[in-house]
Design brief:
Elements: H1 4-10, H2 12-15, H3 17-22, E1 26-31, E2 34-38, E3 43-49, E4 52-61, E5 64-68, H4 71-75, H5 94-110, H6 112-115, H7 120-126, E6 133-135, H8 138-154
Antiparallel strand pairs: 1-2, 2-3, 3-4, 4-5, 5-6
Length: 155
C-alpha cells in the first residue's frame, strides 16, 4: 500500500521540474522514499520521510560510491526568496512538499556551482561543522553504478 510519502517520491520530477529544466537533469526513483537527480556533472540523492527531506551529493572515490550529507550546509544558502509559493499546510505530506519546493528554488537560485560540477564548494563544506561523508546502501550504490556506467558508455 502506498503512503503519502511514497506518492510524493513518485512525483519527485514534478517537484524538481525547474531544477531538471535549468540544469538538464534526469530524475530516477531509487526506492520507495529516495530519488536521484543527475546530469553530466552532479548526482544528488533526495530522501524523504514523514519528518522532512535530506539530500546527499554523490561522488566516486577509489572505485567506491560515497556521499556527502550536505543538506544542512547547502540549505544555509537559502533565504526568503527560496521560500516562495509554498502550500498551506493542511494535511500530511504538505510540510515535506514545502521542503521540496524550497530545495528546488534554492538549488535553482543559489546552487549553480554544485549543479554545474564546480568543486570549490566541497573544500569549504569539508571544513564546516556539517561535514559528513557516508557510504550509500548497497541497493542505491548498485543503481548509481548502473547510471554511471550507462553515462560513461555514451561518451
Amino acid at each position: 500500500m502506498d503512503s503519502i510519502w511514497t506518492m510524493i517520491n513518485d512525483e519527485m520530477g514534478k517537484y524538481m521540474e525547474k531544477v531538471i529544466k535549468k540544469y538538464n537533469m534526469n530524475c530516477v526513483k531509487l526506492n520507495k522514499l529516495s530519488s536521484i537527480l543527475y546530469n553530466d556533472y552532479c548526482y544528488l540523492i533526495i530522501n524523504i520521510d514523514r519528518f522532512g527531506v535530506d539530500f546527499i551529493y554523490v561522488f566516486e572515490e577509489e572505485g567506491e560510491i560515497l556521499g556527502y550529507e550536505c543538506s544542512n550546509y547547502l540549505c544555509m544558502r537559502f533565504d526568503d526568496v527560496d521560500r516562495q509559493n509554498l502550500l498551506q499546510e493542511t494535511k500530511a505530506g504538505d510540510a515535506v512538499k514545502n521542503e521540496l519546493i524550497v530545495i528546488a528554488n534554492g538549488w535553482v537560485n543559489k546552487c549553480e556551482d554544485v549543479l554545474t560540477g564546480e568543486k570549490d564548494w566541497i573544500q569549504k563544506y569539508e571544513k564546516s561543522p556539517f561535514y559528513s561523508k557516508t557510504k550509500l546502501p548497497i541497493d542505491v550504490e548498485r543503481i548509481i553504478k548502473i547510471i554511471l556506467s550507462s553515462r560513461n558508455n555514451k561518451k
